[in-house]
Known about the structure:
The structure holds three protein chains of three kinds. Chain A is mainly α. Chain A has two domains: 2-73, no CATH class; 80-294, MetI-like fold (Orthogonal Bundle), CATH 1.10.3720.10. Chain A has helices at residues 2-11, 19-53, 57-60, 75-83, 86-117, 123-132, 142-151, 158-166, 170-179, 184-192, 197-208, 210-226, 229-234, 243-252, 259-279, 281-294. The longest helix of chain A has 35 residues, at 19-53. The radius of gyration of chain A is 25 Å and the shape is globular. Chain A starts with a helix and ends with a helix. Chain B folds into two domains: 2-62, no CATH class; 83-314, MetI-like (MetI-like fold, Orthogonal Bundle), CATH 1.10.3720.10. Chain B has helices spanning 2-11, 13-27, 30-62, 80-86, 89-121, 127-135, 142-153, 159-167, 178-206, 210-218, 223-234, 236-251, 255-260, 272-282, 286-314; strands at residues 64-65, 75-76. Chain B has a two-stranded antiparallel sheet. In chain B, α5 runs antiparallel to α12 (236-251) and α5 (89-121) packs across α14. The longest helix of chain B is centred in the first third of the chain and has 33 residues, at 30-62. Chain B is flat, with a radius of gyration of 26 Å. Chain C is an alpha+beta fold. Chain C has two domains: 46-184 and 347-395, D-Maltodextrin-Binding Protein, domain 2, CATH 3.40.190; 187-345 and 424-466, D-Maltodextrin-Binding Protein, domain 2 (3-Layer(aba) Sandwich). Helix content of chain C is 39%, strand content 15%. Chain C has 17 helices and 16 strands. In chain C, a hairpin with a 2-residue loop joins β4 (174-175) and β5. Classes of the chains: A mainly alpha, B mainly alpha, C alpha+beta. The B-C interface holds B 68-69, 88-90, 146-147, 150-151, 153-158, 173, 175-178, 259-267, 278, 281-284 and C 17-23, 25-27, 123-124, 127-128, 130-131, 148, 151-152, 289, 429, 431-432, 435, 439-440, 442-443, 446, 448-449, 457, 461, 464.
Amino acid sequence: MSTKSILNDIRNGETFENQDARNHFLRKVALYVGLYGAAFLFIIPYLWMISRGFQPRWQLFAAEPYLIPREITFEWYSFLLEGTPIVRWTVNTVIIAGGATLAVLIVDSMIAYSVTRLNWPGKRVVFSVIVASFMVPGIVNLIPVYQIIVELGLLNSYLGVMLPVIAGPIGVFMLVQFFKDFPDEIEESARIDGFSTFQIYTRLVLPMMKSALTALGLFIFIWTWNSFLWPLIILQRESMYTLPIGLVVLQDTMTAQQPGLIMASALFASLPLFIVFLLLQKQLVEAVQMQGTVG
Amino acid sequence: MLDLIAAMRTEGPRQAINLWWQEMVDEYDRRESAEGILLALPYLLAFVGFMLFPLLYGLYMSLYDWDALSPEQSEFIGLGNYQALMNDPRFWEALWNTIWFVILSVPPLVVFALLLALGVNRNVKGQTVLRTIFFSPYILTVSVVALIWVELFAGEGGLIRHWLAFVMEDPPRFLIDQTWAMASIAIATVWWSIAFNFIILLAARQNVSDRLYEAAKLDGASSYRMMRDITIPQMRNPLIFVVIITFVGSFQVFGQPYIMTDGGPRFATHTIVMYLYTTGFAGREFGYAAAVGYVLFLILITVSVINYYVLSENE
Amino acid sequence: MQGNSRADENSNRQRATRPVSGRSNNRRRFLQGVGVAGAVGLAGCVGSLPGFGGGGDNESQAGEEDLEGGVEVDEGDADIILRLDSLLTGGDGDPFEAMVEDFNEQSDNVAVEVTRVPWDEYYDQLFTAMTADEAPDIAFSHSSQIVPFLDNLTPLDDYVNYDPYVEQIVDSVEYDGQHYGAPLDTHMAAVYYNKEIYEEAGLDPEEPPTNWEEFAEANDAIVDAGYYAFDYGTGMHICRSWGGWLRSRGHEVIQGEEGNWEPNFNNEGGVEVTQALREAVEREWTPTEDDNSWPSFVEGDFGAVVDGTWAWSRFREGGGEELDFDWGTYDLSLAPGKEEDWTMCDSHNLVVPAADHSEEELEGIGQFFEYMTQERAVDWSAEAGHLAATTEALGSDDLREREAWDYSLHTFQEIADNGELYYWPATQNTDEYSEAIYQSLEAVRFGQQDAQAALDEAEQRCQEVFE
């Protein structure tokens, strides 16, 4: 594809007649080589993960590794599904990530609406403190939050994993930026029509801010889905584990390394988010870009 | 608030409070205030409970020889934990290892992300495909990333050593070689986390007005000059953001060494967060671990502030 | 010498080994000895993948729960229901849980409920559960891991009769004159060897080596025959060989007492046994990087490997398919220049981590402990492959008639009879000082450090740990 397009460019009037054109051409070649070379390097880990999960033992343990399987087997996947709690872990992860996302969206949009649209004493100070807490790296609070979770009796509970996510300031900050742009006129005319604050919030603000909420929701969902250290500490039972922890425990519990099984589990665990990624890539890009603008 | 104190002096306390209250009533609609606070309350509860309070509670814990199994028996030791920390060679080792990781990972995470963003922004064929590929690792969890790279780096049966063997005599034994282990983790990390920086910088580049370049072209500016005088300055804020975020993220590296090397070989990949985790949950020294957290906090604030000033002053 | 291990695409006799990578360095691999069933039997026996193997007798359960094992008890089955968190999985998890079910059946008023916890997270999770006051009524503790828990364990002398146990074993749970655990077994490592390869190399398979010189000679012969001769593993596994060897040179790994431990391995004996680890690699007995010696052994690529008592349960679970050649075991006490025979070991103990039990409950716990560790000692030993902890079981004819006896148990019994059991020193930070040691030993195996430098570094790190 790349060579062809370069040739096209050349045909479209770009020739080697002068130095500039040659430089331009060379630069273009370098650009394509660089970008597609990088892209190739980027997909190798994926290829490796996919390929190894389908290779039979003799290929996995051969002295020369095979990037392309010579023979396909499903034994790792069938073992994964039948012999490990991976389905259970997936369900757990969906519950935790989904629950946290829902809670964050509700709670954050409420305060964002309150901060941007309503006037109440102390608002500015409160918001500044929230913004300032942006500087606090999660790891500082690891020990004290653990102690608090324990004292609340929430060790080994989904809620214990979700609560600290809900306290994160980023969603509030992001939504406040967007709610600011909500047109005053609409709100005023709604008030004249007798809408209550609550109605304005649920019927006007939320629907109109759908894209911001989607972006935030995606971000929180992926963040929680992938989080590792915190669930590792809070969840105590194999039956409670999320996928990220389950995978590591699965690897560690084996006497012998089973690259086929491990790569199969990695692919299985990535698949749900990968599908989300392919379906909602545009919104996901927006979600990340929103954080960039926030910063 | 200051008005209130001033008024207390001139009008006497009771009168002053009455006046202040009157002002509040005038300034804020009662119903609106009530609604506003009510809407803010659920988040604020979570925020205070799991962000603000822990921040203070952690400081408090760090002053104790905390007994995790019976906290009421904890012993106040003032700055004892911090003192012990400063004298603990294992803390310093973990800190240096972490700084080494930061040095290895931050420059490529920023520079390559910038190059990829600038490249993809050019009118290349397959732009969408390229963007998808570079962005995709963003959705992976650290376990998946670490497990894939462990397989890639494996001694025999690993792809990388196998390929390197074609071009060099004795390829490094990545994860078990003291000099290579951290670099290997950095490579895996770059692959994984470059996505975020890439997308932010791509957006930043797309926000730079084309007109600036057109004008520069008319002036006959070289592309290097356009890069130096237009692209970089125009993207300065997102770049600062990316640099700071990457520093902060790299300083807190945990999952990759925890899964890929468990801190080995010979503690070469034992990072500060791993140190915090092991002293806390394997060593049971909660007070000490909380102190580690605070020291890390201070380091991160300092690094961020330095980053901010250095980068904003530069231009 | 690689001849036999060269890849041959069309043959099934690939090297089943994988190089060291990833968490092979894991300090928690130490606990592997708790008996993880062999993952190697996978092709023939899917259910035996460790951690998730065999479902006990819980036929009523379906799906994944079934595979997770454990013992369930219904409310009302007994007056006293005790929760037990088990770190045993697969190979020895199943017989353990079967014994618990037997206990529940024969007891009128006490029933025990078992939940499996992945062994590599076991002690961290026991600790976190204790911080939340949610510790189980009964937990496991290795003798080497017990010290940090002591303050919160209930002394058992009033509830368990300690007379039947072997003195040396029970000493490992005695602190300040009180016993904090009921020992289920002793487990240790030996050399598992492939008699067919030994024969092929011109060795007498019934006369295995008994000292370093014989061992070296045998290994050279096996290498000449085209196989790796033996493998001592990586990570904490190295210490199973190294620790015993060091002890048989007259040195304990560390000396002293809690609060005042001193490393004691940086000396002539220490350097020599450490050099032996490197020598094994240099003479090509042992591959440089290898984390999967057991699978290689199973595949018939290795003359011998160092492995533990628990290997028996892998063999049993695999229905004997796993090792389809004639194999045996011999004593690992082979240190160059050894003065005495010592073997490094550890024990599984049942302990009571929560303090708030009623007298009635404690008596129930006592009954359960005596049942599991004394009455069923022979069964436990025969099924799980570990050495029983009671004098009676060790001497019983019943044990000698079990299948495990001829394969491996008799060797372990001989080891215990001839030499001495060396418990890896238990301290407040056993994992940390062990990690300091084996990370250096690994560097020696990989040729990254010489023995002296490695021990210097390990000594310094140990001192830092104990400070």
